[in-house]
Structures are given as C-alpha cells and as structure tokens.
Amino acid sequence: MAEDLSAKTCIPCKGGVPPLTRGEAETYRRETPKWELVDDATRIRRSFSFSNFLTALDFINQVGDLAERENHHPDITFGWGYADILLQTHKIKGLHENDFILAAKIDRLSGLG
Fold this sequence. Notes:
about 110 residues, four-stranded antiparallel β-sheet
C-alpha cells in the first residue's frame, strides 16, 4: 500500500472475492487510524462531532456527493452535532480496499483526518 489511499479510486466490486481478513483489514486501518474495526472486522466505523445540526447535515451532504462519485455508499446516522459513518462492501459482506479508500477520502473531506 505505497500509494496514499485517498489518491485511489474505488473499483466496482461484483462480489465473488473474499473479504479482507482481520489482519489485512488491520493493515489498511493503520492508514485510517480514526476508524475502528467493528462487527468481527467486517465493517469500519467513525464518529464525527459538530457544533450544530446544520454543520452535520452539510458534512453528510458532502459525504453523499463523494460516495456517488466513488460509487461506494456508506451507512450514515446523523443528528444534532454528530454523524456516524459505517462502511462495508455489501456484496462480499465484509471489508474491501474500497472501504478504506472511501474512509481516507472522508477523513480528508472532514479536515479532521
């Protein structure tokens, strides 16, 4: 993983590839250290804090635009002052490099990377 993850582009996953092992996921997670492995290392999650609802909503809209460009879509929960983002490659029911690429891009987008 010599190339910065945020410089990569998500590639379509048609399924049929195995999800990352816990060890492989941990290697990628080192490049996105504010994300945590959850659900037996089949997903990654990060929580963001904001000063109000409108700021959280603006951030989520930017994440939505990014997800559309990357064609890789997170599960998002947000409300007044917070946003929680959960990533998994649904077709393989686990993690793929794409999840960490999007996580790195979200970190850069947030300015909180």
